[in-house]
């Protein structure tokens, strides 16, 4: 992506985010029971949609890295994996925080250890551990260990999604794709979909920047390693 294409894409995402904000705050109707606090929903759900998407990208990239770790394709796959994990953790953090802001006025508590919230917190911890492993571990085995952890960690994603269907929780039952169909008022759907698309597009822009930085870091590391090897050889002569 050249600079012009990136600038146009960034402006388009900014317009989309602004339009989503307008739809969520001005166009979507006020929920009858919770009032205006329910409008957090239009950011809470898109945050998790983006988080799960990037965790899935991390899963695919991690599997690719393990399959091709002895080939030139391993480095780009590793860069995709770590970049997606970072974005996934950020969006998951936003989802947790908006959930707590929503819970306090509605439930009267910031947090409860029910199945949905606990499984989500565990998911967040797994991917934070993934990033810490990438940051603190030295040697060529760190990406391999991190890829294995990523594959294990993604198992929690469907658990988080299905938790309110499998167990009785404080969290509301599904309003989208529920057993009796969507419980969401049709007039609320456009604002939700627009914000999901906006969050995904915003995440894609940031992901591209982070991926390019990671690839540059890898290339610099490889150049430094090659330079050190050449110095060692010259000194040995």
Features:
237 residues; mainly alpha; Four Helix Bundle (Hemerythrin (Met), subunit A); 76% helix; globular
Short description:
The chain is an all-alpha fold and 237 residues long. The protein has a single domain, classed as Four Helix Bundle (Hemerythrin (Met), subunit A).
Task: Describe this entry's structure for a reader.
This protein is 76% helix and 0% strand. With 237 residues, the chain is mainly alpha-helical. It has one domain (3-175, 185-236): Four Helix Bundle (Hemerythrin (Met), subunit A). Helix 4 packs antiparallel against helix 6. The chain is globular.
Q: What's the SSE blueprint?
A:
Elements (H helix, E strand, L loop, with lengths): L2 H25 L13 H27 L6 H34 L7 H22 L4 H14 L1 H11 L22 H48 L1
Helix pairs in contact: 1-7, 2-3, 2-5, 2-7, 3-4, 3-7, 4-5, 4-6
For the secondary structure, the number of strands is 0
Q: What portion of residues is helical?
A: over 70%
Q: What is the terminal separation in angstroms? A: 45 Å
CATH class annotation: Mainly Alpha
Total count of helical runs of at least 4 residues: 7
Rough shape? globular
Rg estimate, integer Å:
21 Å
Q: What percent strand?
A: under 5%
């Amino acid at each position: 992506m050249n600079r012009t294409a990136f600038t146009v894409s960034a402006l388009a995402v900014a317009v989309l985010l602004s339009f989503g904000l307008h739809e969520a705050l001005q166009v979507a109707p006020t929920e009858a029971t919770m009032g205006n606090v329910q409008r957090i929903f239009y950011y809470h759900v898109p945050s998790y949609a983006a988080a799960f998407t990037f965790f899935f990208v991390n899963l695919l990239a991690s599997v690719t890295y393990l399959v091709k770790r002895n080939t030139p394709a391993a480095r780009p796959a590793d860069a995709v994996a770590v970049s997606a994990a970072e974005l996934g953790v950020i969006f998951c953090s936003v989802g947790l925080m908006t959930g707590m802001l929503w819970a306090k006025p509605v439930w009267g508590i910031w947090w409860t250890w029910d199945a949905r919230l606990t499984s989500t917190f565990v998911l967040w911890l797994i991917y934070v551990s993934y990033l810490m492993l990438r940051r603190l571990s030295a040697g060529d085995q760190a990406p391999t260990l991190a890829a294995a952890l990523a594959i294990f960690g993604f198992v929690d994603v469907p658990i988080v999604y299905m938790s309110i269907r499998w167990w009785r929780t404080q969290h509301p039952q599904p309003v989208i794709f529920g057993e009796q169909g969507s419980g969401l008022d049709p007039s609320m759907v456009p604002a939700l979909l627009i914000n999901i698309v906006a969050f995904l597009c915003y995440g894609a822009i940031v992901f591209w920047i982070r991926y390019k930085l990671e690839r540059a870091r890898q290339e610099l590391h490889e150049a430094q390693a090659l330079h050190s090897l050449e110095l060692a050889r010259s000194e040995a002569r």
